[in-house]
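W.,

You were right to be curious about this one. When I first looked at the sequence I had no strong expectations either way, so I just let the prediction run and decided to look at it fresh. Below is the sequence, 249 residues in total, followed by the output.
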Amino acid sequence: MQRLVRPGSQEEQVGRLILAAALVLFLPALPLGNYIAYPFVILSTWFHEMGHGLTAIALGYEFEQLEIYASGSGVALTRYAQEPSAISRALVALGGPMAPAIIGSLLILSSAHQRLWRPVLLGLAVVIGFSTVIWVRSIVGIVVLPLVAVILMGIAWKASEGVTRFMLQFLGIHAALSMFGQWDYLLMESAVIGGRSMPSDTGAMEQALALPHWLWAGLIIVTAAAMILASLKYALKPRLPDNVIQFKQ
């Protein structure tokens, strides 16, 4: 029987990404889907809060700990030796909502190159594991994140190349869509997280830089959308496999 879609073709790549997006969107609606999707919800929170923490480190501040709650919300606690500038405070706040879009874009881009599939998945698993030991200080994070790391490591080592690539695409789409799923949070000036009322990320940016939080929310959403679309365009571009060399006359 003749295959309708040629292996490695652009049509197959489009189909895989559509399947990954459909799985991300509809998995919670399937029987037991909420339980299967839950570790990836926690992973999305990890992306977000690590964005805050690593941005603080990049600016010369301390990332003390990361707390993830059973509801899927979380908070990154940072320490400043001296009063940070308004720009620094805004950048740390921006690092959270932008991190899922950045990581999602990188995972989608890496799915376009076969030589990167296993190393990237394995590297992500290692980073999750180390970050759990160094920063995570909540029961949910300590239990769920190592489980996710073990699953990703097992796929990177033992799964077929098709499954490995699909996992990269699934994680990339999931990270990207989780960012857009925060639109209501981004449009809030404050939120209750872990039983505490605090400024939202865009609310913190408003406090630091004066412009209204809804304007920052719009800029974040537009920027993230542009990044994701660019990564998808690159990943779906027709190309030869990594182990094929093309000579042009």
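Here's what jumped out at me. The CA atoms of residues 206 and 213 lie 5 Å apart. And, maybe more interesting for your project: The radius of gyration is 19 Å.

Coffee later to discuss?

I.
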